[in-house]
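Why does residue order matter? Because the sequence determines the fold. Keep that principle in mind as you read this record.
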Amino acid sequence: MGKIRKGDEVIVLTGKDRGRRGTVLSVGEGNAVVDGVNRVRKATKPNPLKGTAGGLVDKNMPIELSNIALFNAVTGKGDRVGYRVLEDGRKVRFFKSNGEVVDA
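Structure:
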């Protein structure tokens, strides 16, 4: 269970997109793809079998997990995340700054 998961709202801490917020589209080994963050223009070849045209395509590239933080709506900033086991036995994530549970 990772501290940052697909569907989380995150904020970028460092790099050219510092301060931008986005939703996590996918998480891999040590990096994540965030919607609207770390966008590049890639040249692609046309593929008539797939029906794709060639040219320049905007694409979201992965960003290191150490460069993003989970966005805390209460404080309006990025926050660190920890784990806690509730009385009913569920393991949930919580914000370290105010102790609020992330997973409802």
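The mean pLDDT is 92.
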